[in-house]
Design goal:
145 residues; Helix Hairpins; 4 helices; rod-shaped
Length: 145
């Protein structure tokens, strides 16, 4: 069984990547705003405590969100590794895969033929093999195809 990345998984990967980048940009923007707001050497103004507290909280929130986004990416990669290791994500093509598929296809066709013959016998026995049985047999042939 070969599993490919579904649109949902692709969207999740892209969403997590963009979240990680956005959080990092927010942290850098907050730190740059902090650096730009510091007074020059000629000015001796002390920073306002509320501004400093707001920047501190903003950095804490953004860093926590960055860590959470990284954990989500780690969880996704771990899940993909487990799927790959336990056979749900078949990415390696082996020699003779086509032979196995052809053999399985032939076996499936043989099983379908046996079921079709058994169904015909069942319908013949149901009707007693006479009368309307020919019509039912023809209908069974049409449904089997």
């Amino acid at each position: 069984m070969q599993t490919q990345l579904t649109p949902l998984t692709t969207a999740r990967i892209q969403g997590l990547s963009s979240t990680l980048i956005r959080r990092l940009e927010n942290i850098l923007a907050a730190s740059l705003d902090n650096a730009n707001s510091t007074p020059s050497s000629n000015e001796h103004k002390s920073p306002i405590l509320t501004d400093t507290a707001v920047q501190q909280v903003q950095l804490d929130v953004e860093s926590t969100a960055l860590i959470r986004a990284a954990e989500e990416i780690m969880l996704l990669t771990r899940t993909m590794k487990e799927i790959w290791l336990f056979g749900g994500l078949d990415t390696i093509k082996h020699e003779g895969d086509n032979d196995d598929k052809d053999e399985k296809h032939r076996e499936m066709e043989e099983n379908a033929r046996i079921v079709n013959e058994g169904f015909k016998v069942f319908l013949n026995n149901l009707d007693g093999g006479e009368g309307d049985g020919g019509t039912r047999k023809d209908n069974a042939d049409q449904h089997a195809l």
